[in-house]
Amino acid sequence: MTTNEALINYCLRLGDSSLILGQRMSEWCSNGPILEEDIAMTNVALDLIGQSRTMLTYAGKLEGKGRTEDDLAYKREEREFYNTLLSERPNGHFGDTVARNFLHSAFFYHLFQALKSSEDEMIAAHAAKSIKEVTYHLRHSSEWLVRLGDGTEESHNKIQESLNDLWEFTGDLFEMNEVDEILIKEGIAVDLAEVKKEWDKTINQVIERATLTKPEECYMQSGRLNAMHSEYLGHLIAEMQFLQRAYPEAQW
Amino acid sequence: MTTNEALINYCLRLGDSSLILGQRMSEWCSNGPILEEDIAMTNVALDLIGQSRTMLTYAGKLEGKGRTEDDLAYKREEREFYNTLLSERPNGHFGDTVARNFLHSAFFYHLFQALKSSEDEMIAAHAAKSIKEVTYHLRHSSEWLVRLGDGTEESHNKIQESLNDLWEFTGDLFEMNEVDEILIKEGIAVDLAEVKKEWDKTINQVIERATLTKPEECYMQSGRLNAMHSEYLGHLIAEMQFLQRAYPEAQW
Amino acid sequence: MEDLRKLEEFQAKIDAEIKIEPKDWMPEDYKKHLQRQISQHAHSEVIGMQPEGNWISRAPSLRAKVVLLAKIQDEAGHGQYLYSAAETLGKSRDEFIEELQSGKAKYSSIFNYPTLTWADMGAVGWLVDGAAIVNQVSLQRTSYGPYSRAMVRICKEESFHQRQGYEIMATMANGTPEQKAMAQDALNRFWWPSIMMFGPHDSDSPNTGNAVKWKIKRETNDELRQKFIDKTVQQAEVIGLTIPDPDLKWNEDRGHYDFGEMDWDEFWRVVKGNGPCNKQRLNHHKKAHNDGAWVREAAIAYAEKQKEKQLVA
Amino acid sequence: MEDLRKLEEFQAKIDAEIKIEPKDWMPEDYKKHLQRQISQHAHSEVIGMQPEGNWISRAPSLRAKVVLLAKIQDEAGHGQYLYSAAETLGKSRDEFIEELQSGKAKYSSIFNYPTLTWADMGAVGWLVDGAAIVNQVSLQRTSYGPYSRAMVRICKEESFHQRQGYEIMATMANGTPEQKAMAQDALNRFWWPSIMMFGPHDSDSPNTGNAVKWKIKRETNDELRQKFIDKTVQQAEVIGLTIPDPDLKWNEDRGHYDFGEMDWDEFWRVVKGNGPCNKQRLNHHKKAHNDGAWVREAAIAYAEKQKEKQLVA
Questions:
Q1: pTM of the full predicted structure?
Q2: What's D207-273 look like in SS3?
Q3: Which of B167, B231, B235, B241 to mutate to test the interface with C (most CBs of C within 10 A)?
Q4: Do chains C and D touch (3 or more CB pairs under 8 A)?
């Protein structure tokens, strides 16, 4: 595997995770518990889709076959998407979404913190730009985690269950393979084991503040590295890609 | 409008209503309240998709442009589907589905009874064949309407609300336009006002047996004749057509 | 009489184009009228998220998705400041929402029509926001301060939305035959409901009297409608779409377009709850609100705990 | 001793290939073993509806949709007769379902893998039903009458399913490059889980002893697995797909294919609940069951009312 191939894959991982999580967040539109949350969640969706555009455009450029962000978002198959398993989890109730976003934003936050000093300029710039957005996503989801955790008995139990249910998908965030190896050597990518240490600290801290219990260690599902998914992604993709697939000739 | 054009449209009305209702019923698979209902609802879905194949194939033949059942099912746009508004209503809970199917099966039942003597051989044969299936659909949904209506207080209230909610879409079943006019003259189609009389009798009888109240007269929504739909249909179509749209070259 | 004097002072301010502010005295009817109008306006922004929200997941490009998301976000924001403006009149957002959900308060009837193709995202932006803007520009000068200021803010964003909607229509009208057909179909479906957004003819509009005298309303329904039509007909021509009105033609004498008769039966029917999507829209709103009840309760419980902790500390 | 005599009679019947029927005396362990095995088999049919149900709405042709629907309907039917067969052993379907939902009872682990593309409908039919059939053909001669008869009925339909699945794979393997890639990918994902469906190696399978003596099980796991592999390798060759096992090769001496080591850690992990979809499958089942509670209650209430009416009349 060449460095360029590895980097393309790395960009897809980042871009796809943002895209799929952004698509999930946009499903909340007009469904929030209060108007302010409709705004906040749309905001998160906007940031994430924006991030995915940068990374997919860059992946297309690196590939050199003329594929645009839209070609990559709308014309790849399910088994070519390298998003995290966590990003494709269904929204569920508001607490499920809060827990998912919390776990994922903390990952992005520490990943982007580390990637700010990537040797690849585009990756470094992307990280630097995204960190502001992701800081907000992490704050927003952490605040809700705390509110729900330390709110009513009902909300406490619900959000605890959400965390427990999602836990098995968090190992996937930190798995590495040859792609990481090659890019770490070049100073482009970062060691996710290091990112995990920071992630753990953040997670522990907020979970404690939320009067919640960290889920027990369990078997961790894999997927991201091999574009392996749950059955949920296919439905999301069918809906997302429909118009581009139905009218391949059209400009929009 | 030629008789042939009118007949093509007539076949699409029948075929599309069966197809969309069949697609809805197939969504119940593995979601039924008991295993026997999974079987029964899949059965209804099978019958309906089967009916749609006959009518879409015939429409394609009448059109003479070589379009197959799959071309018509998978490559038309939302605004080219002539299904009843009722057929596209979401499944909701089991009672919503029972009420929808009851109202729709009673329509198909009396329509097919009348169409058995259509001057068009294909239509007559289709009606004769479908009547057996639709008799079962009507019996199945009527029995459940009665069980739920005359079951517990909760089920009574739920199914009454389901009926009330769907009522505004029943007028659409019986609307007629030039297509009907042309085909009635030729003895191919039937007067839906006559079908409605029979439908009313059946509906009244079963609703009474179910200890339910017939919904009050209200403004009736239109759609079918002009391929006008609710927002629900587009999502159903996107999912249904996805593979054919994504791989236009493929045979399956 | 005290009240009469106040009323005169109030009218004098209005006449002198001085804005009425929340703490100022105002006639009960003025307040009621504004509560109704502003909250209806807020509800429209909020319910309006649904027909557009219907297409976010299917937006045909990432750029289109971002533009649509941003637009809907703006609308939620507009809802937010309009509720705040309405709250200055002494009713809470919860009360307004209850009126919406019970059917006592209305929202713009246009949102009771379904969005069936991507072209509808164009039509809604171009026509619905276009019509709204004509009204809102006029309302920037409305006599109630908080409402007027909200309108100034909203107008800036709204004209942006209108342009984006028009762009979608233009792209599709110049696209493939299927796209052009979708664009024309969307125009056909949204044209009449859009021009009815301005409300009944002036001659059939009984509430206008006081609203004009109090300068809540600065122009009449028919004046605003004519402005919108004059502007929009030309825009349609530019992109090669046909307004679905055989009676539409330029009237040299009036310096305006003449246009056909609107279907007021349809208008009133939809206002009264029998449009294609009225039930869907309200049920959607209720469901989201009910599903979120436990979240709101948790937020309140948490806030109270925090307050107690601060008191103890 | 009475029991010992009964046990001897029982074993004599088994040895004489006389079926055991529900009213016959049988050892408690025989009954328990059958309750477990038949209900697990029933649960597998029912849970197996989910991964295939996932593709009904997206079936790529109407014919494909009908075939898939019919297949899933058959599976629901199999579930139904297997529950009936299991109920002859004195436990109710409700009890079996409770055991499933509490995790006490298992179902075939293969259904804890997701179906990701349409080719998976082929792979499930070809491999999963193919493996099931090898087992079921053998179980047609099982010693318990109701189970044996259910198997006879099921086998007829199952071989039909297997053929249909193979057809899907064949069509895709001979289709566009994308289709062929999907077919190969589906085979890669389903191969190992399918051959592990037969369970652990005989040497690691402690329960086999009595089950063989009592002729519940007529052939061992390894025997059945070998049959399946021998049959399937050739089918894969015919359609140009590659079995993802570098160690696979024909052994002239044994007259069988040799094959690579299976990943028993993965097998046990998935059995214990940590496969990719275990939670999803059980939660789906629970949700459908809970959502349907009011319907079942209503049906019971109605039936009781009817009974009362008949008594009065």
A1: 0.96
A2: CHHHHHHCCCCCCCHHHHHHHHHHHHHHHHHHCCCCCCCCCCEEECCCCEEECCCCCHHHHHHHHHH
A3: B231
A4: no
- Please state the rounded mean pLDDT for residues B90-115: 98
Reduced to 3 states (helix: H, G, I; strand: E, B; else coil), residue A41 is helix
Distance from CA of C182 to the nearest CA of A (A): 12
Answer for the pair C198, C137: CB distance below 8 angstroms, yes or no.
Answer: no
The closest alpha carbon to C128, from C168, C101, C92, belongs to: C168
- Alpha-carbon distance values, B29 to A214, C41, D15 (Å): 36, 43, 43
Side-chain half-sphere CA neighbours of A7 within 13 A: 22
Question: What is the tens place of the pLDDT at every residue in D191-231?
Answer: 999 999 999 998 887 666 788 899 998 899 999 999 999 99
Which pLDDT does position C1 carry in this prediction? 64
Residue A36 in this model has a pLDDT that exceeds 80? yes
Buried-state track C85-111, b at ≥16 Cβ within 10 A, e below 16: bbbbbebebeebbebbbeeebbbbbbb
What is the ipTM for the molecules in this complex?
0.95
- How many degrees, rounded to 5, is the angle at CA A21 between CA A17 and CA A24? 150
What phi and psi values does residue D169 have, to the nearest 5 degrees? Answer: -60, -45
Q: For all residues of chain B together, what is the average pLDDT?
A: 98
- The DSSP secondary structure of A209-250, one letter per residue, reads HTT--PPPP-PPP--GGGT---HHHHHHHHHHHHHHHH-TT-
The CATH homologous superfamily for domain C1-312 is Ferritin, core subunit, four-helix bundle (1.20.1260.10)
Establish if B42 belongs to a structural domain. yes
Q: How far does the CA of residue A251 sit from the closest CA of chain C (Å)? A: 7
Whole-angstrom distance, CA of residue B1 vs CA of residue B4 = 8
A147 vs C305: CA distance, rounded Å: 10
The span from the CA of D167 to the CA of B1, in Å, is 44
Q: How do residues B199-216 score in pLDDT, each as one tens digit? A: 999 999 999 999 999 999
Report the residue of C65, C92, C157, C176 to disrupt the A interface, i.e. the one with the largest count of A CBs within 10 Å: C65
Q: Is residue B164 part of a domain?
A: yes
Measured on CA atoms in the order D203, D207, D209, D211, is the torsion positive or negative?
A: negative
Q: How many domains are there within chain B?
A: 1
**Rg of chain D (C-alpha set):** 21
A252 within domain boundaries: no
Q: Which residues of chain C have pLDDT under 50?
A: none
For residue A10, give its domain range: 3-246
Locate C45 and state its tokens.
Answer: 């922004």
Q: Does A239 touch chain B if contact means CB atoms closer than 8 Å?
A: yes
Do the beta carbons of residue B136 and residue B102 sit within 8 Å? Answer: no
Per-residue confidence (pLDDT) for residue D207, from 0 to 100 = 63
% of chain D exceeding 90 in pLDDT: 91
**Cα separation, A243 vs D205, whole angstroms:** 53
Q: Which residues are within 8 A (CB) of D64 and not within 5 positions of it... i.e. 6 or more apart?
A: B252, D121, D168
Minimal-distance CA residue of chain B relative to D298: B151
* Dihedral angle of Cα B144, B150, B153, B154, to the nearest 10 degrees: 0
Dihedral sign, CA of A3, A5, A9, A14? positive
User: Has residue B82 been placed in a domain?
Assistant: yes
Please give the backbone phi and psi of residue C258, each rounded to the nearest 5 degrees, phi first: -85, 155
pLDDT of residue D206: 67
Closest-CA residue of D relative to A234 is D116
Q: Write down the residue that tokens 């509560």 correspond to.
A: C35
The DSSP code sequence of D7-66 is: HHHHHHHHHTTPPB-TTS---HHHHHHHHHHHHHHHHHHHHTHHHHHTTGGG-SSHHHHH
How far is it, in rounded angstroms, from Cα B64 to Cα B4?
10
Dist CA B135 CA B132 (whole Å)? 5
CATH of the domain at B183: 1.20.1260.10
